[in-house]
Amino acid sequence: MEFTAEMIAAFLSGEVVGDKDIKVWTIAKIEEGTPGSLSFLSNAKYEHYIYDTKASIVIVNNSFEPSAPISATQIKVEDAYSCFAKLLELYAANKAQKKGVSDKAAISDSATLGEGCYVGEFAVIGDNVKIGENCKIYPQVFIDDNAVIGDNVTLYSGVKIYDDTNIGNRVIIHAGSVIGADGFGFAPNEKGEFSKIPQIGNVVIEDDVEIGANTCVDRATVGSTFIRKGVKLDNQIQIGHNVVIGENTVCAAQVGIAGSTKVGANCMMGGQVGIAGHINIGDKVQLGSKAGISNNIPDGEVHMGYPSLPISKFSRSNAVYRNLPNLSAEVHKLKKELEKIKEGK
Hints:
By secondary structure, this protein is α/β, with parallel strands linked by helices. It folds into two domains: 91 residues, 3-Layer(aba) Sandwich (Udp-n-acetylmuramoylalanyl-d-glutamate--2,6- Diaminopimelate Ligase, Chain: A, domain 1), CATH 3.40.1390; 207 residues, UDP N-Acetylglucosamine Acyltransferase, domain 1 (3 Solenoid), CATH 2.160.10. The chain is built from five helices and 39 strands. A hairpin with a 4-residue loop joins β38 and β39.
């Protein structure tokens, strides 16, 4: 499908600088642009690419002022990044959509599917499962008994949904993720062995959540593990039993959150953050990559390091740490001078 610069500008409420009739039919990174492709520039450190890009159209911020001639047609908008994201959504919506229910899928007679659902080969849907409208269940997905799934949900190949899981609307779960496996619950007995504690709760995933590939969300021991509305989880994340993650919180790859921890709304976690169990993280908290969290954190704080420190203390401590070799040499020098003074007595 082809679009002209004029058509794109109208969709984005932008201004065309250059050829309004030039056409594009694909999307590319600015450094990899080819004739007929659309790209964008929002980060100043990539500006040098715009002067040599072969892309036909580049979306730029209104504030952008070129320092050299540009061959590509520009579309000036308020926010180039968000406008490019809108175009990606439009592009994705126009891709061919999967349809129909494969005769190779195993669907219980007691399960119900809403209108417009796609179910791929070798998907298994258990007893009393309820699936809403316009859902996409890709090949080899397993949905266990009594699970409830809302409208416009996408479950990619190999996703496993355990029994009694409750998933809201417009949720996306990527390949290989496991929702509702048993939490890590064991108790030592008189023999020094560990006895399993039955995990009889479930997982509740609210609307507009996206979960990356190979991420695990454990069911609660009792009650529910909650992933609240708008949460975005990256690949290879572990969410323990009875955890609550607040609305619109985002977590990068390999975050681990131990059981019964409560995370507030609008938090941000970098990759490999580790959070101990039974603590509370406030709203709008930011945790830098590899931060190790063992205590409660109030609303709005920024923490880094292991064990984690508020950003101001971490910065000061890090400055001292980087200077440790010099400090060590200075201490050794002072010790030698002190020994000489003592010998002189």
